[in-house]
């Protein structure tokens, strides 16, 4: 049954399987299909299987894969195994893979493939059509032929759709599109993704710093980048990795989660330290202990909302110098309005509950303070982290809840100490 | 300067602008480019501008847009304006748009375009090439011609790449690919997205329930679906909408955030109610008030990690009947191990801090209980919500923190009451 399924579906099945059935399924896949399936798997799961294969098997699996996927795969191997696999490849394949390995995984160079079909300006459409017919097949996702000069420098694109509707005697020079820019190999992959998204590209040429054509990037690889970037914010805000295997075994998952819990424990002790300063007040008015989590919790939720909006805005490249101040003012205003609104509700509820208008006033004031702080922290923390090139989604959520917890307890218990002392 | 920028970049600039500069920029865009820019904007921002335009202006803007984008745009108009716009369109455009309007926005039918080029099986490659040459241009993202029979029913695809390398005398019937399935118009858009992602498609045909060809879906529209779906989980977990405009004015943002804060306030009062049951114990041992937020906070973080993994797994279609129990067991095991690990640390820290080994034991036990509950709640809540077709990302995070707060306070203060009474 497995043999009838296309490789991407087999890969999805593997990714949706707990460890034991995953190994069993993998055993059932025949050697020829291994490469096809491997290149569809996410990095973490791919490396699980790679660890069980020897260099020869890896080389065999690599034979049928796209060059960029081979390069991605090889980057997960240890240096000696990597060398062994490279040695067992044909010279042509090896040269291509090594060219991509020169670029980091998360750059245009690491995403590119070397299967572009190039043509030269003086040729006519007719010559190009005959040249194509000599190929037994054209690489997938070829929507453009790439026009280069004698020095292999990028000049422009000849869309297949233009080729098909043009006069056979027209030359490439007359029909090519030149108002397109090639992608520099060093460009970061999320920038590549936003170029593809904004300009609805299917493929785009990649050049080195001298303008020489290196290869092309295709939308299927870009879609993976978009998916990973979008997942990154979600997973990071919970201290997880976007590559996290949903079905990772206990022993792989536990340490990663443990670290995040440990960091949170530290910040929780910090908040407890703040409460500890107010032991005398708490002993006098035990209602304060009952109500204090409300102030901290509202601040945490308001701050997380702000943080999420800013983290997404940063990921989409929407936030810069010109608009950050507007955002801070907007968030503080929203925090103030919602602070006043809900603190009125809380004030009435708390006053009635404990038959004490003073406690209502105190919790209302503390909540307004904490919601204002949440708005400030929710904007300024990610913007500052981003400036220092620290991941705002990952570090932001720890720092933020620390700030809102501390502010919440400090303002509520501090005000109470002043008024009840 | 604005006139020199391509429409997608103008749209990005608009999306990155606070309200006032956004309106000013919009005024600067000439009437001809309005349609191009409009179709690149996200729904929420698009509808802001639509509200300022009359039916005639909307119809003019729609003239240059893709049919699926026109349909998307029109769905945001009120019924009378919609009718007015449709009336002012040419009969051909109107028929096309109305066909798409028949399908919900989030289905294959709502995503499709009607610009597919169709060919019939008996024709030769040469005839097809001559037929194409009669077009002045071929629609963007055309990687396949669609093969239909006389009744316009979908039969297969003729890739342009096959057309280009085939013998001119071969027929479409000989060269077409038939092991592809067309997409039913009623298919949900996230299912369409995962088909495109898994099978690296650039375009795919859409058929009605009788197999008749309706149009085609292209990867550029699918990329938008992927981006929205991925953003959905992130934004929903903070009670926000994935369409949320980063630069929405205060008056638009405040009410949406307020609702989420109000729901959180209710659940926070629930947790306070639990603490209130233990007033006597708190009065006796004030250290309990100092430490109790730690138990609740650790449960909240552990639960959010589990919830995030499950929400993403559900969004990727990885979780079903066969593997849900494995996941629950895995999460509970991870919770148990991390619970024991960190409760040991907490036990020592709390015992030393308050010079009281009993309080260390109590907090350790409460933390293990709460981390186990967090693991259970973090898996079972989203799986149950999903079964009842409630958004697991949106509802999950409220329900989860309520569970971990209540369990945290109840177990910690409950155990303390037993041991200190």
TrEMBL record, chains A, B:
<dbReference type="InterPro" id="IPR038076">
    <property type="entry name" value="MgtE_N_sf"/>
</dbReference>
<dbReference type="Pfam" id="PF03448">
    <property type="entry name" value="MgtE_N"/>
</dbReference>
<keyword id="KW-1003">Cell membrane</keyword>
<keyword id="KW-1133">Transmembrane helix</keyword>
<feature type="domain" description="CBS">
    <location>
        <begin position="176"/>
        <end position="234"/>
    </location>
</feature>
<keyword id="KW-0460">Magnesium</keyword>
<dbReference type="InterPro" id="IPR046342">
    <property type="entry name" value="CBS_dom_sf"/>
</dbReference>
<keyword id="KW-0129">CBS domain</keyword>
<feature type="transmembrane region" description="Helical">
    <location>
        <begin position="258"/>
        <end position="279"/>
    </location>
</feature>
<dbReference type="InterPro" id="IPR000644">
    <property type="entry name" value="CBS_dom"/>
</dbReference>
<comment type="subunit">
    <text>Homodimer.</text>
</comment>
<feature type="transmembrane region" description="Helical">
    <location>
        <begin position="332"/>
        <end position="353"/>
    </location>
</feature>
<dbReference type="Pfam" id="PF00571">
    <property type="entry name" value="CBS"/>
</dbReference>
<keyword id="KW-0813">Transport</keyword>
<keyword id="KW-0472">Membrane</keyword>
<comment type="function">
    <text>Acts as a magnesium transporter.</text>
</comment>
<dbReference type="InterPro" id="IPR036739">
    <property type="entry name" value="SLC41_membr_dom_sf"/>
</dbReference>
<feature type="transmembrane region" description="Helical">
    <location>
        <begin position="393"/>
        <end position="420"/>
    </location>
</feature>
<dbReference type="InterPro" id="IPR006668">
    <property type="entry name" value="Mg_transptr_MgtE_intracell_dom"/>
</dbReference>
<dbReference type="InterPro" id="IPR006669">
    <property type="entry name" value="MgtE_transporter"/>
</dbReference>
<feature type="transmembrane region" description="Helical">
    <location>
        <begin position="359"/>
        <end position="381"/>
    </location>
</feature>
<keyword id="KW-0812">Transmembrane</keyword>
<dbReference type="Pfam" id="PF01769">
    <property type="entry name" value="MgtE"/>
</dbReference>
<dbReference type="InterPro" id="IPR006667">
    <property type="entry name" value="SLC41_membr_dom"/>
</dbReference>
<comment type="similarity">
    <text>Belongs to the SLC41A transporter family.</text>
</comment>
<protein>
    <recommendedName>
        <fullName>Magnesium transporter MgtE</fullName>
    </recommendedName>
</protein>
<keyword id="KW-0479">Metal-binding</keyword>
<feature type="transmembrane region" description="Helical">
    <location>
        <begin position="285"/>
        <end position="311"/>
    </location>
</feature>
